[in-house]
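Weekend entry, working from home. Most of the wet-lab plans are on hold until the incubator is repaired, so I used the time to fold the two sequences that have been sitting in the queue since the last round of cloning. Logging both here for the record. First:
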Amino acid sequence: MKRLFFTILLSVVAFAMYAQSARDCIRLGNRAYRSKQYDVAETMYLKSVAKSPSFEAYYNLGNTYVMQQKDSTAFENYKMADSIGTNDPMRRARNFHNMGNIWYAQGLASINQEGGNPAGAFQNAVNYYKSSLRCNPNDNETRYNLAMAQYQLKKNQDKNGNNNQNKNDDKKDKDKQNQDKQKQDQKKDQDKKDQDKQNQDKQQQQQQQQQPQPKKDEMTDQVAEQLLNSAQHDEKAVQRKVNKNQNSKRKNLEKDW
């Protein structure tokens, strides 16, 4: 009997939960959200979306995910809320405002992050804050956030520009260093070639100096022999001339008797 009663009770509870309207789920979710029971609020908003998707359900889901530090999921739900739309410009303004906040937070987080793109994130934040102000021009908080996003955008654009300029300058300096090193290497090679040639010329000079050279006042055997032959020839010629003169005198001295 007790088991039957328990089964009936569960069925009634299940029916009661099923019978809850999408609006009922939103109210229960709001109650849990105010109590900071964000997981319970998430469950109730998801039930509301499952029963009847609405701007309010998705918007509230986005807020719940923000409180759970799930910004990416929150942003997707804000986008779903915007795609459904609402006739209330104030709600649309808050939705765009929150989307801008997510991008602004992402920009701050990516400033010192390797490979981050803070300028792109701040640009998105600026765009969503402007959309919010179009819906509600009197929202001072959004106007302040827009000014901060624009400031961060310009700051990080200038920073990126300076970084790019520094990278270009570093590249130019590196190229110049490489060119200077190449010139130094070429000069070293040329100096080595010149030094090798000087060493080679010096070595040849030393070899030539080491070879015996005939003295200027000395004559070679061939020259001496030529001079000797010439002298002997001249001597014979002189002797023949002397003999001829003597014979001539002798003839002149003889008389016919």
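Second, folded right after the first finished:
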Amino acid sequence: MKLRKWMTLGLAGALVLSLAACGNKETVESKVPEASAPAQTQPADPGSEKDGEGYVVGICQLAPHPALDAATQGFKDALSELLPGQVKIEEQNAAGDNNTCNTIINGFVSDEVDLIMANATAPLQSAASATDTIPVLGTSITEYGVALNIDGFTGVVGTNVSGTSDLAPLDQQAQMIKEWYPDATDVGLIYCSGEPNSQYQVDNVQKYLEDLGYTCEQYPFSDTNDMASVVQDAVSNSDVLYVPTDNTAANNTGIINNICQGVIPVFAGEEGICGGCGVATLSISYYDIGYKTGEMAADILANGADISTMPIEYAPQYVKKYNPVTCDALGLTAPEGYEAIVAE
């Protein structure tokens, strides 16, 4: 990878002359692996050979959203703490457009950044296609084998790609629905057909729900143009709805909420969606997985860690949370052990 001097050679030469004159003078499928211990990267020694040098890291985030924003912030905070003053961040947001992801990533590759952080599936896919030499760390990715079309994925990509996953145990998500609605019969699964990780989640949640005795029907929408009609169809034919960690749904919870609020319960794969339209979720901290990604980045940049051997990391813990607003609208009382989602 290419180290960047943040000073031009001319300036460096002038500095040498000046010094001479004066003389004096930083957690597949339901069984999610346990997160490994935090990387032992130490803050750089101010007197080390890194003085005057720095790394350039490009961040491509798919869209503005609280969960993705938190992951990006965690990533930046980790680098700031572990490599103080040594990392220049080039951060760009694709505003939900896959073609913009390609443009951003290609720009990073042309600039020969030292590392790329891809926040969400579309940026990861763009980065994996654009370079096989620059280290690429993903975050907010549900399942890397699905995202990168790897058959028999075992947890290590084996190339210049690694990162963290936002997947919470899918069997526990199915059990959560059973906990709230043991007597329901029909569960509608809503997701964007263009997101392979969403398809992965609903396929597996459906298996667990059917094992629990539910009848399930999938309701895919292609984009926001048909989202409302698909959700309405699901509401008409279901007792309960489930939405996975789906980026399109996350950016359009208002559409789902306008149709479902006070009418039918929605269970979500992550807290941001639940806060916008859901009843309950099995939540992870996106800040934590972003921070873990930053630890991995620091290990690669400062210690020369081999990304091709780095396993995908998962959230260290999962928390049951409920949305007081939607629960009140449906006259529901949260079971014991759930924490309230606090509106921001």
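Plan for Monday: verify the second prediction. Residues 1-52 have pLDDT under 50 and may be disordered.
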